[in-house]
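Field reference: sequence -> structure
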Amino acid sequence: MSTDRRLNLPGIAYGGDYNPEQWPEEVWAEDVRLMREAGVTMVSVGIFSWALLEPAEGVFEYSRMDRILDLLHENGIGADLATPTAAPPAWFFKAYPGALPVDRDGRRLWPGSRQTFCPSSPAYRRAALRIAGALAERYADHPAVVMWHVHNEYGCHNDACYCDTSAAAFRTWLRAKYGDDLDALNHAWGTAFWSQWYYAWDQILPPRATGAVPNPTHQLDWRRFCSDELLSLCTAEREVLRRAAPDTPATTNFMVMRTFDALDYWRWAPELDILSNDHYLMSDDPEAEIDIALNGDLMRSLAGGPWFLMEHSTGAVNWQPVNRAKRPGEMRRNALAHVAHGADGIAFFQWRAAKAGAEQWHSAMLPHTGTDSAVWRDVVQLGDDLKALAEVRDSTGAAQVAIVWDWDARWALELPAQPSGELRYQDLVRDWYTPLWRAGVGIDFVRPGDPGLDRYRLVLVPSLYLVTEAAAANLARYAERGGTLAVGFHSGMVDENGHVLLGGYPGAFRDVLGVLTDELFPLLPGERTGLTGEVPPGATADLWSERIRLTGAQAVASYADGPLAGLPAVTRHQHVSGTAWYLATRPDRDTLATLLHRISREAGVTAEHQAPAGIEVVRRRGTEADYLFLIDHAGKGAEVPADGVELLTGTPVTGTVTVPPGGVAVVREAH
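Structure field:
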């Protein structure tokens, strides 16, 4: 029996969430007609239809879904059939009120929205697996079903529940982790501090609201548990589906985006056949194209190749303080940027804009206005674009640089009572990612313990506050064996339990970096310090500084003023064949770019392609050709050196290709 679970659709898949149950059945025929006009090849169905599929416990109503799937198949449109478990129906909570979640303050939440369930509830798990099993048995062989969609956005609204059921599940998880050894837990958590020592497992509770700062390791293990608890629900549903349809791929939509950090997707990624992501722009981000690129590269790295964009928006969303529409051409640039960074499927929330409900003001492929709209015309054009890019499917990214990304380190860094409450993991990573992205350098993301670092010319560690001994040794070996390693401030400070690594900072990286810090000097919001040395005139830094002494490294830049004037701020440690850099502060944007370009140059990193400022350059490598994506975010247009065929227009190009103002060009370059 085959286990090659790939999406059985040609080219780049195109579509969105389809909720026909919200509309009279006479609308459905118009839906599929317009889907064909737009070039839609797959839609996700059933995501929030539990109440209609199972109107009473154990009673199933399939006739509506039968008709929907038959209609899609008759029109050549594939179905990504969802288990509707993100929104249990009202009858479930009437029968099982204990399945409702409890927040940190001890308040029991009420039904009336989505994802209002406790992830540890046995009643919820039984009900979720029952509906998943019923759908699997009914539709395993339906010709429309090309992929299973497990749940929807795990952890979006219930990443943690603090009820007694969750407390018991947490204790079970802890006993497994610590080998049923309570002394081991007490040591790991440092419970001798503040008289927190535990003498029995049932004394341990979730980190509920308390009068002062909760135990950091307690909180860290709680974050790990919550991610694992939701993952166990996901894999349980996946197994039910896989038993019924072993060849049909299963996915669930991740939320790799700036605002979500609840789940350790390195642990989740191996459990899915196809990795999918939901990504939305934030209205307060003036350079949202960088967020698209960064998170697209992270998704490609999690997947080890192409992935699927399950949701983004044609225009405004409905859940931000101000929900702005996209500018002309922005939706197309967004979608094709996702393709550039590895997406082999592009989908939106949702197909038809809802006229009622909490998301009635969320944009859609078919807006309230209907087809006489700019959005609809853009949707049809994008369908044509994706058809023209069909051959790009299955090609992958090209990277000479790796950035270390770790959810444990992110969680630990952002716990309360740090030396500075201004540290934001994703912002620190983005600071380092941006200059290389602007320069057209291909980037992968890796775990700190990745055994294959030698395949990269440069490994960047913008922020790795928490690190295991093995992972730290792995990064050090990389530099000592000839690689170029660059490490950001406040990295290597604590072990996997959050315990400070004694003997001086930056802890685990002191030796490989050739520095020792004896005191931290975080800067106040708005405070800056000057930098001098091998940096541009007028260079400054903010957020962080440290009192460093050199133990093998050389100073590249020093503080020009303040309490650390004359002491190193940026250092370089030359090993026999490799190099390790340390940035002990956050340089201003231009200075950081200058430093990272120098580090890259010395490491032998080259840009994928030369293009004018404002043109994003991304390369996907295929077996027979490379695909050069050129995206104009500046709105000025450009002539870019290229030879091959521009796929969006089908035009041969010799010497240069024209990127229209605010537009995109994709050039096939033969090997």
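Note: The chain has a mean pLDDT of 97.
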